[in-house]
Amino acid sequence: MGVTDFASLDYPIWSALTTGHGSLARSNGLARRYPSDVSPLAALEKSTPEAFADMSALVGPNEAVALFTPEPVEVPGGWQVKKTGWMQQMICDAETAPPAGEFHALRDADVPEMLALTAATEPGPFLPRTIEMGRYLGIRSADGRLVAMAGERLALDRFTEVSAVCTHPEYRGRGYGHALVSSVAARIFEQSRVPILHVFAENPAISVYKKAGFRVRRAMHLTVIARG
Questions:
Q1: What pTM did the predictor assign?
Q2: Percentage of the chain modeled with pLDDT above 70
Q3: Domain 90-218 indexed as CATH 3.40.50.300
């Protein structure tokens, strides 16, 4: 791929909401976001006061939304900055064979267990309708409990994001994260798409993702804002 082929990754949320996830987008002028029970991710076509004004019509009074941008954004008055930080955007250039294992396709009926697992492990926001963003795989214990999962989040033009990678604390150290990330990535490649993911720079899981074939593409900035 040439440099221009990656342009959509510099603004991945906007790209997703105008391509693969256009049907999920709530839009107002220069602003787009996912429904509040799907994801808090949102995006601006341009980081201007006018775009932030358009976003204000899409955000409830007690609600926060998250922006991914190549550089920090200047947040105008009328908004509260709840959190900022740097992430690594990673991309998988070549498929690696996932380890053998029994993976369960997760469905709507599994959402209560998925919500419980993500609440216990905090891999990032996971809401009642997040499952609509893509396909999810899980690993169950011998007694049938969901103990690990991973799935798809942002769907861009040629890229799909791996997300919600988590393992219950009692089951860590067994290679479940690597197995699930590799398996989700393999399914993305099967659709002739390229896997990406976002991870905080200090997260030790980066080593797991590198083992699964991902490399750091660039730094991305996270800004979480709420209406003031």
A1: 0.95
A2: 98
A3: no
